[in-house]
Recover the amino acids of this structure.
């Protein structure tokens, strides 16, 4: 770690580093129930944690498999040593992940990760499992990206959104569409026409409210999709008769029949549309990569790729979003000679030299600073108010990005 990283405001990771780490930890599977996750909120008494670890270690004596038992105890031991080094919990608390990451039975490789997150850990949590518990960390990197939710039938409607795991209601509406029984004196034809008109008005109102709720989000690329549901035919009519704004209509990913309408239907809609509501992170990644390739194809000058090119655009403040593949692994090495000449080199780690010869004066240049490229870009992104996405390679779009060299940018404006 470079000194700059350690000096970060809360002493913890930034969002990008955390995203990268989550991806790394997500990949790890224990051979057995032997991966330990421990979350400690800020202000927690560290000596209590030490006692807890000691008791869990003796509890682990009961594990039947010798390998698993030893691995769990060793993982806890590593965490215990880290805990004893900490006198107070960091401002946002701290999380530990430890366990055997070796693929070979009987030849353990116990790794430990210590995470000081960018946002506070809310509660203490301990688990020993085949995978690490990452949900609390994932909640911290949920941005303001949402899924739009529309639930309606002929009498009620609700518009809300899903952000992370929480459902929020934005509008609830009731219609004046009368029931099927008409009042005395009206002709059946007239009554039916009236009902149709009122339903049209209601659908128009729903569309208008949906536009208010979602259109800005869609234009900021923060609307991941829209799901529509409700009992009966009204939800279908809303879509089939093109009531929704075109940009919103294009975002509809599923339509579901529900038992109930209005606000009460929102959670049922989320439940039923689960398969269409993809992991929001993956959706964002795909959207961003697609936008980059679209720009490239249109030759509108709003895309750039390759480390040096992207860095150059970044320094100009021209980058809207920088995309870095999770498989992209490079380091920035800064060298300086005793005559004050400086040189920055980008390399894969194994090729980094402690010293190189100065191009200007042939003196020896010392390695002054070594940083992960993700950190370098994260810092620049913050400075220039650019967004940054770490792109997974478990989807087609991510693989395409990696094939392009693993680093790309969507620009705010054309620079050449
Ligand atoms: Zn020099």
């Amino acid at each position: 770690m470079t000194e700059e990283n350690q000096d970060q405001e809360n002493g913890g990771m930034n969002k990008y580093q955390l995203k990268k780490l989550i991806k790394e930890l997500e990949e790890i599977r224990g051979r057995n129930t032997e991966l330990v996750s421990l979350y400690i909120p800020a202000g927690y008494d560290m000596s209590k944690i030490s006692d807890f670890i000691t008791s869990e270690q003796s509890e682990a004596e009961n594990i039947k498999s010798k390998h698993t038992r030893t691995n769990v105890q060793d993982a806890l031991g590593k965490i215990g040593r880290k805990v004893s080094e900490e006198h107070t919990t960091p401002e946002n608390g701290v999380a530990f992940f430890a366990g055997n990451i070796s693929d070979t039975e009987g030849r353990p490789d116990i790794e430990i990760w210590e995470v000081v997150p960018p946002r506070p850990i809310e509660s203490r949590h301990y688990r020993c499992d085949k995978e690490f518990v990452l949900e609390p960390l994932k909640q911290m990197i949920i941005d303001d990206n949402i899924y739009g939710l529309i639930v309606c039938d002929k009498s009620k409607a609700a518009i809300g959104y899903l952000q992370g795991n929480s459902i929020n209601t934005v509008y609830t509406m009731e219609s004046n569409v009368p029931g099927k029984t008409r009042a005395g004196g009206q002709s059946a034809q007239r009554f039916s026409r009236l009902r149709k008109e009122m339903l049209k008005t209601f659908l128009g109102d729903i569309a208008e409210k949906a536009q208010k709720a979602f259109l800005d989000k869609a234009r900021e690329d923060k609307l991941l999709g829209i799901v529509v549901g409700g009992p009966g035919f009204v939800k279908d009519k809303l879509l089939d008769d093109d009531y929704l704004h075109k940009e919103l209509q294009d975002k509809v990913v599923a339509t579901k029949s529900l038992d109930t309408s209005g606000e009460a239907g929102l959670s049922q809609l989320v439940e039923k549309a689960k398969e269409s509501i993809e992991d929001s992170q993956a959706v964002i990644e795909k959207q961003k990569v697609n936008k980059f390739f679209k720009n490239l194809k249109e030759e509108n000058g709003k895309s750039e790729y390759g480390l040096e090119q992207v860095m150059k655009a970044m320094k100009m403040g021209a980058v809207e979003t920088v995309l870095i593949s999770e498989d992209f692994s490079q380091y920035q090495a800064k060298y300086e000679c005793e005559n004050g000449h400086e040189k920055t080199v980008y390399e894969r780690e194994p090729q980094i030299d402690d010293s190189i010869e100065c191009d200007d004066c042939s003196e020896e240049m010392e390695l002054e600073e070594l940083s992960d490229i993700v950190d370098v870009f994260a810092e620049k992104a913050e400075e220039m108010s650019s967004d940054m996405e770490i792109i997974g390679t478990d989807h087609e779009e991510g693989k395409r990005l990696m094939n392009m060299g693993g680093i790309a940018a969507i620009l705010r404006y054309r620079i050449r």
Remarks:
- Residues 337, 339, 341, 358, 360-361, 363 surround zinc ion (CB under 6 Å).
- Confidence is low (pLDDT under 50) at residues 1-10.
- The radius of gyration is 27 Å.
- The longest helix spans residues 188-219.
